[in-house]
Amino acid sequence: MDKERIIGLINELYRITSLFPKKEPLRYKMREAADNLLLHFTTFESLNSNNPGSFAGDVKMKTKECLFEIENNFEIINNYFNVTKWQNWASYFNIIALQEKYDLFKKEVKEEIKRIVLEKKITVEKEDKPEKNNHSLSIREKKIMLLLKDKGRAQVNDASKMLPSVAKRTLRRDFLALIEKGLIERMGENNNTYYSLKE
Questions:
Q1: CA–CA separation, 61 and 59 (whole Å)
Q2: Buried/exposed code over 135-144 (b: 16+ C-beta within 10 A; e: otherwise)
Q3: Average pLDDT, whole number, for the chain?
Q4: How confident is the model at residue 137 (pLDDT cuts 50, 70, 90)?
Q5: Rounded CA gap, 199 and 15, in Å?
Q6: Are residues 56 and 93 in the same domain?
Q7: Which of 96, 112, 127 represents a domain boundary (last residue)?
Q8: Are residues 78 and 90 in the same domain?
Q9: How many domains does the chain contain in total?
Q10: Which end of the chain is more exposed for a tag (fewer CB within 10 A), N or C?
């Protein structure tokens, strides 16, 4: 996977979003997703180098988290492109051309990821996707349960500090899944929403 190429694509995204209105949230959201893509891409490369270093800890688990975030950020950027191309902030054709470059790179990255996953025998799907039975939890769900056990109650922001590489939207889905499994309950609303273990 070519780091220079992804940096080039991110620079293009920065250039095109500089044409958006300054107070337009999509200008900053697209840049944030691109920055996250580079962060996880770089982390993934480091983890899969010959010597990831002692800081890496559980390399397989961190690699899986990076793969999830890389795919997630590609998806987010693609959806943002679909919104912005109709806004007349930048040339429709320039946005389409950049979206196609991201799409092509995403396909190549997926192929490279498949190769590395097979080579290193990293099981991506089994651990992260809970089975239908209520007691099977993903790694993130287990971490959330430990957080709630430790703190008594917590907000999505608390989980986000514990798992900084995971999007808040994803964490909200994890909390919802734990509610549906009957393991936790929600209290309050909006910014005062807390979660605690179900008694």
A1: 6
A2: eebebbbebb
A3: 82
A4: confident
A5: 52
A6: yes
A7: 127
A8: yes
A9: 2
A10: C
Note whether 31 and 51 are same-domain residues: yes
- Please provide the DSSP assignment of the chain as one string: --HHHHHHHHHHHHHHHTTS-TT-HHHHHHHHHHHHHHHHHHHHHHHTSS---GGG-SHHHHHHHHHHHHHHHHHHHHHHHHHHTTSSSS-HHHHHHHHHHHHHHHHHHHHHHHHHHHHHT---HHHHS--SSTT---HHHHHHHHHHHHHSEE-HHHHHHHSTTS-HHHHHHHHHHHHHTTSEEEES-GGG-EEEE--
Burial class, 109, CB count within 10 angstroms (exposed 0-12 / middle 13-18 / buried 19+) = buried
The overall pTM is greater than 0.70: no
Extract the tokens encoding 1: 């996977």
Q: Could you give the CA distance from residue 171 to residue 163 in angstroms, rounded to a whole number?
A: 9
Give residue-wise pLDDT tens across range 34-78: 999 888 888 887 777 666 555 555 677 777 778 888 888 888 999
What CATH number has the domain bearing residue 159? Answer: 1.10.10.10
Contact, 145 vs 178, CB < 8 A? Answer: yes
Residue type, 119: E
End-of-domain residue from the set 74, 92, 127: 127
Spatial neighbors of 171 by CB under 8 A, at least 6 apart, are 140, 144, 156, 159, 160, 163
